[in-house]
Amino acid sequence: MADLATLQSELETLKGALRSGEKRVRYAGPNGEREVEYRSVDDLMKAIAATEAEIAALTGAAQVRTINVRSKGWQ
Prior knowledge:
Blueprint: H1 4-20, E1 24-29, E2 32-37, H2 41-59
Antiparallel strand pairs: 1-2
């Protein structure tokens, strides 16, 4: 697992790529530079979620969960 500073840097890079519509991301980390090309926006969003989860695990923050509830209305 990477350190907090590296994860936060990667998260900002991923979010920047999402905002600009890029699918190719270049990371500069302690082990050198690496480049990843994501196949889709969905894959990029999954990478963002995974990085946020790693940061939450390191900082002890609770992970936010979303629950979708559907209803047919009042019966």
